[in-house]
Amino acid sequence: MDQTQLLKGILEGCVLEMISQKEVYGYELIQLLKEKGFYIVAGTMYPLLQKLEKKSYIQSQLKISPDGPDRKYFSLTDEGRIYLNGFWDQWESIATAVEHIRGGQLDEK
Length: 109
Hints:
Strand order of the largest sheet: 1-3-2
Largest sheet: 3 strands, antiparallel
């Protein structure tokens, strides 16, 4: 199975969750996701961040970086928090249903 298709559906929620935990800039977010086992490239991350900002789930602020050019830091908005809570509710529901199928016995007819 192509992992990319599964990832598309959950990446948005995972990114919002990480941003909810701390203000973060794009490259840092990519590195944090890699540490958690996700392989994300800039060509995937930056369009996703733009999409989330356009939906008003996150906001950005340009800050001075001691290591080079200024960085755009992202934080979660109130709308983003509401969306994120809904994402986790849906995740729990889907994960529970999948685990019931995976771990259960199908009735024979």
